[in-house]
Amino acid sequence: MKLISWNIDSLNAALTSDSTRALLSRAVIDTLVNEDADIIAIQETKLSAKGPTKKHLELLLNYFPNYLNVWRSSEEPARKGYAGTMFLYKDSLNPIITFPEIGAPTTMDSEGRIITLEFEDFYVTQVYTPNAGDGLKRLADRQIWDEKYAEYLAELDKKKPVLATGDYNVAHKEIDLANPSSNRRSPGFTDEERQGFTNLLNYGFTDTFRYIHGDIPNVYSWWAQRSKTSKINNTGWRIDYWLTSNRLANKVIKSEMISSGERQDHTPILLEIDL
Fold first, then answer.
1. What's the confidence (pLDDT) of residue 139?
2. Exposed, middle or buried: residue 38 (CB in 10 Å: 0-12, 13-18, 19+)?
3. What is the pLDDT of residue 205?
4. Active site residue: 67, 89, 128, 152, which one?
5. Bridging pattern class, strands 240-245 and 162-167
6. 98: burial class by Cβ within 10 Å (0-12, 13-18, 19+)?
7. Would you give the DSSP letter of residue 130?
8. What are phi and psi of 29, to 5 degrees?
């Protein structure tokens, strides 16, 4: 089975805008089409509470004619047009779809952050983890989220093995970002967030990229848009992951980044696994 995950940073912009960035995004979509994955997880769709428009669905169908989709958007009392997730999956698949709420603080459960697909022998679930925010104003809430999310995955894992993916908004170890020393208290690299990810793995999950590649350095999944040279200089972060239940780790064939060309921000990540 081949699976892909990508934080698209606005599905509408990627599909309908004529900006230079949108053209780069559509080039990435072309790449995903050629990958012919069974399942594609998309984060940060930024759609309205009503979800994709008729135009969005037509454009998606043009790109992915043999796929069905399911989405979850941010809804009141959360911010409008914020966060959001979507799955595209081949129409030969027939998952049971759930939109879990995990007892997260503030409006986090209303921000469209988790979708889970249940198959006969395993789960595929994606997440768009809340960012700790400027000034770490959401860090305390993020720590609660991390605990609740880890407990949710552990409950799934008790029933059947799990493939979990998404933008986890944390670089787990120093090797997972280019400049660890200058980012000690930056959102995504605080001790608290890193410990939260360690705790998640300790529930019985494997970071498949490290499982396959070991301590290979300088491989990242995100480069800041605010810095024009971040991707040229490869001053990136690895904050997007494919995790599996430990008992599936030895079935992983590939876990790697898919090139997004000149486009900064997130790059798609690929998992191939023999299920």
1. 97
2. middle
3. 98
4. 128
5. antiparallel
6. middle
7. P
8. -60, -40
pLDDT in tens, 178-207: 999 999 999 999 999 999 999 999 999 999
Indicate which CATH number applies to the domain containing 23. 3.60.10.10
Domain count, the chain: 1
Q: First CA to last CA across the chain, in angstroms?
A: 7
| Structural domain that includes position 206 | 2-273
Q: Which of 167, 176, 207, 240 is catalytic?
A: 167
List, edge to edge, every strand of the sheet that includes 162-167: 96-98, 114-118, 123-128, 162-167, 240-245, 205-207
Q: Is 89 a catalytic residue?
A: no
- Give the tens place of pLDDT for each residue, 150-168: 999 999 999 999 999 999 9
pLDDT < 70 regions, the chain = none
Known catalytic residue at 128: yes
